[in-house]
Structures are given as structure tokens and as C-alpha cells.
Batch of 3 targets.
Target 1
Amino acid sequence: MKKVLLILFIFLCGYQVQAEDGYNAWLRYTPISQPALLSAYRTQIASCYIPGHSPTDTAIRNELQQALHSMLQQSVSFTAAIQPRALVCARINLLPAALQQQLGNLLTNTDSSGYLLKTISYAGKNLTVITAKTDIGVLYGTFALLRKMQEQQPISNLDEHSSPKLKLRLLNHWDNLTRYVERGYAGISIWNWHTLPTYIDPRYTDYARLNASIGINGTVLNNVNASATILTRPWLLKVAAIAKVLRPYGIRVYLSARFSAPIEIGNLHTADPLNDSVRTWWQEKAKEIYSIIPDFGGFLVKANSEGQPGPQSYGRSHADGANLLADALAPYGGIVMWRAFVYNPEATDRFKQAYEEFTPLDGKFHSNVLVQVKNGPIDFQPREPISPLLAAMPKTPLLLEFQLTQEYLGQGTHLVYEAPLFKEVLETDTYANGKNSTVASIVDGDLNQHTLTGITGVANIGNERNWTNHPFGQANWYALGRLAWNPQLSSDTIAKEWIRQTFGCNPKVINTIDTMMLASRETMVQYMTPLGLHHIMGNGHHYGPAPWSNHAPRPDWDPVYYHKADNFGIGFDRTATGSNALAQYQPGLRQQYADSSSCDPRFLLWFHHVSWQHKMPSGRTLWNELCYQYNAGVNGVTQMQQQWKNIAPFIDPERYQQVTMLLGIQHQDAIWWRDACLSYFSSIAKLPIPAPYPMPAHPLEYYQQLRFPYAPGN
Ligand code: GCW
């Protein structure tokens, strides 16, 4: 009876516990259960004062209403005057004059989207003030305060300002207009093009809220393998409808532009960037776009890469192509993000391609162009050294591209926290300008004095109820936003923030999940591509191991091209005796990799072809080390399974079960990777798998005949 009453009571209060389907991601706003904290929060925020009336102010009001009502379990009043113990949310020029005076100079060094959170006493009233130069800044400040509350931190003595370090903090959707997502493992596209522009899915607003809460301020809606259709008027109207939802949240829309659009939708016979009709066509198109979407962000372009059209088809350079579009967008403040992901099948080493094509163009791009560079020289592998191009175009703003969707990282089923990968890249010293020329300092504009700066992540979002399919995929989306705001944040800080908001503040839960997350990326490298192996996955779908594969339409899509395993040894010689890709790095970095005996083992096979008997720092031979690493990777997953089990009582049953099953797949896959790779390499090295490591469950042929015709995202 008591139980029934309790349930009824909870229900009547309107706080029935919802199933944890993951939809709210890190914006769960669960009721504060600790009495002391609850009372402290209620004391601090007795009412809200939001004087502004912009759509962003409305978004702030809605967010606070929802969040405070849920966390404080009481309704919050929005008052027309500042009451004692109020939360004041307003851009600086909407505050009363005395407050403007008191706080104005604190904002002097704050960026236009930065914010100030401050507890003050004003006219005898204790106030919590969120202010900024713009209403978007106030929105970011609001989310910062709500983050603190979700993390159950004190808010009675706030004094914090924060400004984003990067100007463009973006997502790139590889979403086709059919809603099929290239390399998407979380369902189909959230953009329901067919029902747009009339039907506005509420998901668009939640997408905007989630992004704004982590500082994301732009999104490219469609795949870089682009269809020109998106640039036709009916589709631009659909884009405009999305832009309208995202705008109050400070998010601009961008589009991937197909370089040959003037031919496909403009009836021209050429897309030559130096042709007058082509120039006029793009100018007219830009004019049309801005008449429909006045704050349109600009174009992302993949040109002359993997079959995409581009300026080289007309004997022109990437700079000619980028500048054509940049000139068309310039009158409206738009930008071009021109991708450097290019590689020509005839080249000797795919590693060197982007650098060779793009470095001669440094200084040739117009001022509203950024060259968008993937973090590594090949393609989002579990571990790559940095792309040498990052340190070789000082005159050009470079936009760093990471991949959130786990194309090569276990796709939709593996728990891999990517922040350690992002940090490894950002913290790498390129020696471009002597020591301390980190990738972060290049990308944030400090090293070469650029103001147009940015980081982007290829989105891992789809229409799965929880957005990313794997509940931990959300952490990668979260981490990208937080690092683009502040590249100095540590993986650990970001993980803990995310865990508290996503799974609650029980210290045992936080510590256990944090440990799992921080180890997960290295574990994945160990069971997939240890010691600098790379690109040894199945062709096309990129799912699972296939180091034997050698029949792709082009050699640089074949695993054998990358590992070069033979009787003698394994690895790609990129030193002076080989492809000499190492020469593309500055000496300070080059020498860290140049010598096989001192090269960091994590990168060894990226740069050296070494004997199976090569002595590793561990004292093991290379072959034994490879066996050790693959097994350590499998053990790492077993450990994650155990850790997850240990916190079972503290996790809601839905997500507990979901992650348990996914870890089960990850464990099987890790064993599969280990056994398939070790069987194959053992057959080439003619060396047995040494004790005490387990023997593969199947002969090599078994792994070789596995087929995945319907693997997702391909
Ligand atoms: O990672 C590879 C993918 C392609 C992708 C390409 C790119 C969008 O396998 O699916 O195409 O890179 O980045 O352009």
C-alpha cells in the first residue's frame, strides 16, 4: 500500500521517472536529491529575470524553465523586475545602469560569444548574474551554469569568465539527401528532407540545444560527397527552415557544395573556375542563398578527391576553385572550407599527397578560405601521426577535421572515447616555429596569427532515439564541442563532466566510467592496429580485420599496401630509404620517428619496415610484442566488461543492458581482430603464436571468407 501511495505521489508531482532512453543525452536535468544542495540551489535561485525578447532570450527562458523546474522540483517565476536572490540573464546593455557599470569592464577581454558568471550583491540583493556582450554569450553562460548544477557543484560564489578559443566549432554531417548517412552507424539522417520545410521535427530544436550547450556554432548539413540538388531553390527553402530553428541557438548552417553544380543545375557546359559564366553563376547562387538564409555560413568542398569533381578537371588549382566560391560568398560574409583530403592513385605513398598538392598553394587562398585538414595523413585511423600539412601552411587558416563517427574505430558498437585521440593530436609539437608549436597553437591561430580558426567533427548523429546508437558515442560529440571551445581541457575533465551529467554524480560511477573511457582508445588501438599498423580493415565497409586484402580497385585502398608484411618483417618504410614521407615533418618531429630503435613504438610501423626479430623497448621481439599487444587489447575489453558490471546497481536498467550487450559485441570483435590478424601475420612471418597466448579459434581461411555485404554506412 505504502508503495502504491509513493508511486501515486511521485506521479502527481509530475516527476515520474522516465525510462533512460538516452534522448536527453547530457541535458537530463535530473532532480537534485541531496537535501542540503537542493535547498542551497533553491535559496540561490528564487526567481529569474530575463529582460531581453530576442529568440535567443526565449530559448534561454525555455531552457531555464525546463531545467530548473526539473532539478529544483518547483516552478520558477520569471519576474519583470530584479527580485532578491534572482538569477539575472541578460546581455550587458540590458542590465540596469549600475550593474552595467559594475560588470562592464569585466567583459572587456571577453569574446563576443564569451560570458561572465558572477555572484554579486546589488541594491542589497544577492544575485546570480549571467552576462555577455551578446545574447548568444548569455545562452552559453546559461548552459555553463546548468552544467555546474547538473554536476552538483556550488553556485553561491561564482566568478568565472570564459571565451571560446576557436571561432568555428562545427559538425560535418555526411548525410545524403536520401537520408542515408555515409559512415553513419546511428540510423538515418535526422534531417527529414521530404517533410521539410513544412514539418519541423522537434528533434531539430533538441539538436540545437545539445550543440549550443557545448558551444558548437555551425553545422554542415549534407555529405561532402555532395549532390548539387541541395543548391536548388526548393531545397534551399528546406535548409532555411532548419536554419530558422538553429539560429536562436547561435548555430549557422553551411552546405557542402558540388563543384560541378553549374553544369548539373545551372545548364552550363563547364565548371571551370576561371570561366566568366561560371563565376557569374556562383555569384547569382550566393545572392539567392543569402536572400533565403541571411546568415548562411558558407560552403564545404571536397574536390578532386575520390571521384568528386573539382578545378583540376580544367587544369586549375585547388586555390582557383576555392577562391571562385570564396569570392561569390565574400560580399555576404560567407566562408569556404576547402578540404585537403586528396590522394592520387598513381602516387607512391598516399601519406604524402595532401602535403604535396597543398603546400605550393600556401598564400594563394583568399582571406575567407580555410583549408580543412584531417588530423592524420591517411584517414582517421585508430592512431595516426599528425598530418604534416598542419605545420606547412603558415599563411593559410587551417581547419582541423576529426571524425566522431567511428568509421575505423569499431563503428556503432565499440566503446571508444575519442578525447585522448583529439588531445594527442592537439598536443603534438610540430616544431613549425621552433619548440612549442603544437597543433593546438596552429589551429587556434596563435602561432601564425590567424583570426579565422576552427575545429570540426564528422558527426556521429542519426535518428536513433539516443542520437549516436552507442550511448558512449555521445561523449565524443560532447568532447568535440568542449575541446573546440577550449583545447586545453583534459580528456579526464571532459569525461567527468560528461559522466556526471549523463550518469549522475555517484563517485563510484564517475571513477569507474572515467577509467573505462580513458583506457578505451588505447585498448582499441591494441586489438585493432597496435605498434603503428594502419588501414588493415576490410575494404569498402571498413568493418573488421582484413590484413590479407589485396584486390581493391586501387592499391592504396589495400591493407597489404600499408603493412607490407613479408618474410623479413613488417611496416611501411617512410624514412629516406623508403618513401621519405618523414621529410615532410619539421626536423624536431622528424627525428622522433626517424630511427627504428628510438621511434615511439606506438608509431613504429607507420615509419619503419622492421624485422620480426626487431628488439622492442619491452625486451620482446617485434613478433612477440605484436602478440602481446593484440592480447592486451582483448584483455582491456574484458576489463571494461568487468568494470561495467561492478556499477550495475547504480545504472538505470535500460542503459545498463544496452552497454552490456554492446560490450559483448566489442569483446567478440576484439577477439576476431586479434585472431584474424595474428593468424595472417603468423602465416607471413612463419612464426607461431607463442605461449601463453591463446590460439585462434578458426583457421585463417575462415576469417578470410567472412563477408559483410550489408554492413552499415557503406
Ligand atoms: O574516410 C573516408 C571515407 C569516405 C569519405 C572520405 C572523405 C565522405 O571512407 O566515406 O567520404 O573519407 O573524408 O571524404
Target 2
Amino acid sequence: MKKILFKGGTVVSARGPKRADVLVSGEKIVAVGKHLAADAQIADVSGKLIFPGFIDAHTHFDLEVSGTVTADDFDSGTKSALSGGVTTVVDFATQNKGETLSDALNNWHMKAFANSSCDYAFHMAISDWRDDIREELPAMFEQGVTSFKVYMIYDAMELCDREIYEIMTELKKYGGIVGCHCENSGIIGKLREEAVACGNTSAAFHPATRPDYTEAEAVTRFLSIAKAADAPCIVVHLSTEKGYEAICRARADGVRVYVETCPQYLLLDDSVYSGSFDNAAKYICSPPLRKGSDNRALWDALRKDGVNTVSTDHCSFTLEQKRAGENDFTKIPNGMPGVGTRAVLMYTYGVKKHRISLRQMCALLSENPARLYGMYPKKGVIKAGSDADLVIFDPKRSGVLSAANSFGKSGYDPYEGVRTAGAIERVYLRGSLVYRNGEIILEHTGRYVMRGKYIG
Ligand code: URP
Ligand code: ZN
Ligand code: ZN
């Protein structure tokens, strides 16, 4: 069995950084400690940080939506992931109306199998809640799908409060957890209709028709449903201060709610929507980018460990695809790329600016998602027995983000030209070097991860 001894680095965990060597044998970490010696290939990582492979628990690869299909499939999406130090993605297998959950899961296995360069797992997004779907739930757990997403908005996906309550009650029996896209569909639908009727069709009307209180109202309602069901839950892609305040109130009231946000809700704001269509369209996502005050409130929540994970909601489209909404913002496919840039952005704007610590960065990008999505301690931590998914991060290097250096297919980077601190030098997936300094070394070796129940 091939052995590698990583010597001289600083191992980062959700308890903090510490100097330690890491011994890997085959696909597993076998020892972590000071001054390890072994008959092994030596990898000198002096001066480098060693993170457990990052997990992006919110991607949409090869998703058919808005009459088109996302620019990134599992081939380009997972290569992009590796370039960002991501060794596991949890993508959303998405049930179309009329389908069974097994249809959706098989569909996603076919998309990912033999095309993935990092490991992968699936949440199940439920769009059609029926008696036969209820009966299928045990089979989902047997196949490693233990987390589910429900939407309070989007014609193709929206469920009513009663259905969400039933799903939560049912999933609780099996130890499952539900994440929710929280936006008030009624208000947003009406505001969009009114905007278009008045000729307000430019991209600037996307955020204007999704005001912050529509997220806060939906968060409050979702958490009331969770309270009624006495079930744990996740608010995904949280974007507003008001939404976070609703979460704090629910937590004080005993609701077990976990929170995910994304780099775009920490680093970008709605000023991007007032420029040209081509520029604004790049940033059209739902929920939309918010105000600087929301960015600051979310950073503050991260600092206080009030947010549990930072994922990306990578859902990429080319500008050509976005132009379907050139004359009507409601037709712009929603979503942005991000899986390849999250870690350097969080290091640059989080750790280097002292908004979060290295400990927190590791918790947010590795350990917490591993626990929340039932992959810990196989993933998310550097310890004996865990998969040897390692990110060798050079804190001394710097870079400039650009679509030109990306493996993604959207053709643009929302952070084009942004200077970053630190660089992902090497990525190991289950003991094999898969990425080094801008190059994919080994492709399509990603495997499906059977997940267990969440650990709170
Ligand atoms: O605009 C977004 N976020 N598109 C992806 C689908 C979703 O709601 O997560
Ligand atoms: Zn969503
Ligand atoms: Zn999403």
C-alpha cells in the first residue's frame, strides 16, 4: 500500500490549527502527530496549512431548469471543485413533478457516475409530495440519502406549508433532516407580475421584487413548521440580516435550526444590478444579492458561530443563457458559479481580515457540513481512520481570480479580477494527488458517498 508522510505542516481542524505530521496509507489517514517517522514517500509541507478536504454541500450540476440546463455538469463542476480544494460535493438530486424519488436518484447517479473528479453525495429535492413518495423514504436512507430540500417558491418546486410539515414529520422518523429555500412565493410572485406589467423589466427589478422581508417571513414560517413538527432543520443560502434575526428568535424558542450561507451573501451586494444587462445578469440568483448591512450581519453571525456552513449554491449559466431574460428579468436563469473560489475567498476576506479564525473556516467548510450531512468522521477531519482528503494550502501565495483560470463552463467569474491571499497548492482525494497548482492530475476518480444520519 502506498504511504505518504506529510511533514512540517500545520494541520487545521475545527478545534484550531496545530503543527503535526500526517501519515497516509492507501486511501486513509493512519496517524497524525508530532515527529512521525515511517517508511513512506515524504511530502515536505513546511509553511503550509493542511485542511481536511473541503465539502461543498450545495451545488447544482447538470440541472435542467428555466428551459435550459446548467453550464456545469459533473465533469466540469467537480474539476472546478477540486481547484477550490473541494473533495466532496453534495449535489441536489431533484424530483420533477410526476417522478418518483428513485427516478430522481437514478437520474443523478447517471449524471455523476464516471464523470466526477471529486467524491459526491446527493440531497433529495422533493417537488411532488404524494403517498407513494412517503413510502419511498426508507429506500432513500438505505441508499445514503439522508437530507432533503424543500422549496417555498418556484412553480416547478414549490410546496405548501402543510406538505412541508408532513415531510418533516415523516423524515424525523428516520433521522433525516430538511433544508428549505425560504422565500415568500405569494408576495414575490405578485411583485414580479406588477413590475413586468409596468414595463419594469430590467435586471434591477430582480432584487426589488424579492425584498428582504420576503426571506425573513419565509424563514419564520419554516421555523414555525419545524417547531410544530419538533424536527431539526436547515435554512439554506441565508442572505439577510432580517432572516438571521428570525433564526435567533426561533433558536431562543428551542428550534433546532442549522444555517448555511454562501460567499456571495457575504462579499457582494445589490449595487451590481444597476449596471449593464450583461453585468447584472451574472449576479442574478435567488435569493438575490442584498445590502452591505446584510453582508456585515452575516459576517457577524459567522464570527459568533451562529452560521454553521458556508456552501456555494453553485448553479452556473453562460451569459448566452442569461440573455434569455434580456427583455424580461423574470426569464433570466437564476444562479451563479462559485464552487472553485469559496475557500480562497473565505481565507482572504474571512481569516486574513480577522472576521473568522482558521478554526472557524475549517468548521464552516469541512467539519460542520460533514457532521450535518452524515459523513463525519469519514470526511471533514484529519484523523486516523478518516479518508485521506487533504488540501495543501500555501498562505504566503496570492492570486487574482479569473474565469480564464477556471475549469467551469459559465465563461465568467463573479469575482473577476479580485485579488486573493493564499492559494490551493495540492489536493489529495483518498490519498491520491488529484490537483496541483492549476492542473487536474487525476480525473473522474470521484466516488459516491453513502451518508449516515446527521450529527447535530
Ligand atoms: O439562484 C439560485 N440560487 N439557483 C439555484 C437554485 C436554488 O434555489 O438553490
Ligand atoms: Zn434554493
Ligand atoms: Zn441551490
Target 3
Amino acid sequence: MVNFLIFGPPGSGKGTQSVKLAEKFRLVHLSTGDMLRAEIASGTDLGKRMSTIMSKGELVPDEVVIEMIAVKIDSTKGFAGFLFDGFPRTVAQTVALEKMLNDRGMKIDRMLVLDVDHDELVKRLIARAEQSGRPDDKDPAVVDNRIDVYKSKTEPIINYCREKGIYQPVNGMGSIDDIFARLAEQMKKFV
Ligand code: B4P
């Protein structure tokens, strides 16, 4: 099993690239954003509480996403590994993921970080808002808050992973196909 994190600010293309990479490398794509949106769509109490948090551009509590990921890891068999998209988003989530994987004889093999300019992030999210109807994309103040939350709570994971020797920056500017080729080149070294 080989396990990757795909990492970057909101709108950096994590979700877009993960779908293509998971298919190419036969990985299980685990997106906490997609899992949370599915919970909201099914109208559960948990979904209702998470919807309020996400529509403000805040992170949902660590224990909620850690539990979701643990259930998925244990119910998935027969793949080459996992591609974690949008998880972890805090250092506490990173420590929990490492423990979860280590307890099952696995580890985080590589963290691929998409580097994208601030203006390009805002441009992509505004464009997505027109098609997706996602409430967290529609309001520019919420988009700004998501980017601020990324800087304060999520970016510190980069240093944590750099110290572990698994950090790999990737240029996230340009066409979807060009960025895909750069990511695939890095991943090939491990698969
Ligand atoms: P996510 O669903 O993870 O989404 P994201 O960060 O907004 O976007 P992503 O980087 O995946 O962008 P995408 O490929 O779609 O998070 C949403 C919310 O869920 C968070 O704010 C938080 O509240 C909550 N959450 C999720 N995980 C959590 C966790 N672990 N802990 C706590 N809270 C959590 O790309 C964006 C747009 O750009 C798309 O329209 C795409 O088509 C376009 N695009 C992509 N690449 C492009 C390119 N190269 N050129 C032009 N456009 C491009």
C-alpha cells in the first residue's frame, strides 16, 4: 500500500486532480469535503451542524473527520493505497492519521502540495460558485476566511511533514493536464 496526501489552499485543485490521479494509480480517493457534503445532502443531524460551520468557511471539528476517515480506511479493501484529499487540515488531524495508518502497518508516503497564487485561487472559486452553487464559494468574505483558516490552521502541517522528509511541493499553476502530469511524475517514484 502507498498513501499520498494531496494538499493545498481552497481552490488549489485538490479535488480536481485527485479524481484523475486515483484512477491512474488505482488509489482510493478519500475527500473529507465530499464526505461532509454527502452528510449535509442526506439531512442528518450531523450534516445540519456541519453545514452551519462550512457555510462560514470554518473547519469542522477534528473528531468528526477523523472518525469518518477511520471508518473508510477499515471498510476499504483491494486497492493500491489511499489518496487523502482535503484531509488532514490541522496538525492534530495529521497526528491522528499517522497513528491510524501506523496501527494498520501503513504510513503517509508523500505529501504533494499544490502551490497556487492567491489571485488565481479566488478566480477559480468564484468561477466554481457559478456552477456548483456551493454556499462556501458564493460569498467573497467566506472565500477569504477559508484562505485565512488555511494559513493559520492547515499550513503548519507543511513544516510537520517537511521534518519527516515527505514534503513535495508541486507547481499548481497552469492547465489541469499540465498540473496532472507534474503530480503523476512525482507519484510514479512511489507506486
Ligand atoms: P474541500 O471540499 O476540501 O474543498 P476546497 O478546499 O474548497 O477545494 P479544492 O482544492 O478541492 O478545489 P477544486 O479541485 O474543487 O473543503 C470544503 C470545506 O469542507 C472546507 O472549507 C471545510 O469547511 C470542510 N472540510 C473539508 N475537509 C475538512 C477537514 N479535514 N477538517 C475540517 N473541515 C474540513 O478546484 C476548485 C475549482 O477550480 C473548481 O471549479 C475546478 O474546476 C477549478 N480548477 C481546478 N484546477 C484548475 C486549473 N488548473 N485551472 C483552472 N481552474 C481549475
